[in-house]
Design goal:
Blueprint lengths: L4 H23 L4 H18 L4 H20 L2 H24 L1 E2 L2 E2 L6 H24 L5 H19 L5 H19 L7 H32 L1
Antiparallel strand pairs: 1-2
Amino acid sequence: MLLKKGKLFEIISGSVTFILILAMGIIFKQKFLAILPLFISLLVMIMQSRVSSIGFLMGGLNSVLYAIVYVGFGLYASAAYAFFVSFPMQLVTFINWRKRPYGKSTMLRKLSAKQRIFGAIGLIILWFALTAAVNALGGSYGGLDSAVSLIGMVGTLLSMFAFIEYSYFSMGANILSIVLYINMLGSMPEQSTYLVSSAFGLICNARAFLIAHRLYKKQQEEKQ
């Protein structure tokens, strides 16, 4: 039986990413603990690209590993976000999505124009405050680190309540992560493993964006 295009994409892209991460980890002699969450994330990102609730359960548990690794990198905002935000919120997201199931996904909704405006203003204020705090603590790449954490947090919060806009923020966090890791390559070339993982995450989130919008459209048509 021929594999469906979606399954074939997952197998090929996931395998290529796994090999690249493994090869770069060996070349740059990166510690196993530092790349372990990346390997787990391959499966997590594939599940989340399907807009599947199980992806959030796996992602939440994997966030604990990321928090430990980020502390070692001096990315304190990312570490705090991974443990205190991503970990519990992804578990809550899994529970909430299971309460309002739609196949393996959930019933999706959209933010109002007012919610988008006030949310954007609040996000900017929080970014300035968090950047100042990270810099005061002597953290690395304060502005980028804070932006990745905040946008990721908003994306996680929106996904928790099944707002379709979470897919925008997930892609935004991935793009900023790519920029962050590119900036870190000069002093920490082993970060190439995280760069590869973020690139794969961007592809998966772009796929989730398309699937989520198709699901939302189908759900609205069924309501009518």
